Amino acid sequence: MLLKLVWRNLVRRPWQSSLTIFVVAACSAALVSSLLMLWSIENGAKSALNQWGADILVLPAQAEYSPEEVLFTGSPANIYMKAQVIEEVSEIDGVEKATPQFFSQTLNQSCCSLPDEYRLVGYDPASDFLVNGLAQGIGRELNQEEVIIGSEIPAFLGDRVVILGQPFDVAGYLKPKGGSIDRTIFVPIATARQVAFQSPYLQEIWHGAGNPQDLISAVLIKTSESVSPEIIGQTISNIPGLKAVTAGKLMQDLQEQLVAFRSVIWVLVLIIGAITLASLCTRYSSLMLEKREEVGLLRILGARRNQVFKMILAESFITVLTASFLGSLFGLGLLIHYKLMLKEYSSFPFLMPNLSQIVIALSGLILATLVISLLAALWPARRSAFIDPVLALSEGQLR
Amino acid sequence: MQLKLSKVSHQYANKFGEVIIPLQDVDLSIDRGEVLTILGPSGCGKSTLLFILGCLLKPTQGEVVIDSIPTYRLVEDELAELRSRKIGFILQQSVLLPTLTVRENVLLPLWIGPKPFNKKSAEQKVTSLLEESGLLERAKFLPHQLSGGQRRRVAIVRALVHDPELILADEPTAELDDVNRSLISTWLLELADKGKSVVIATHDPFLTGVASRVYTLNKGLLLLKAKPGKSHEAL
Question: Which residues of A touch B112 (CB under 8 A)?
Answer without folding.
Answer: 2, 298, 301-303, 307
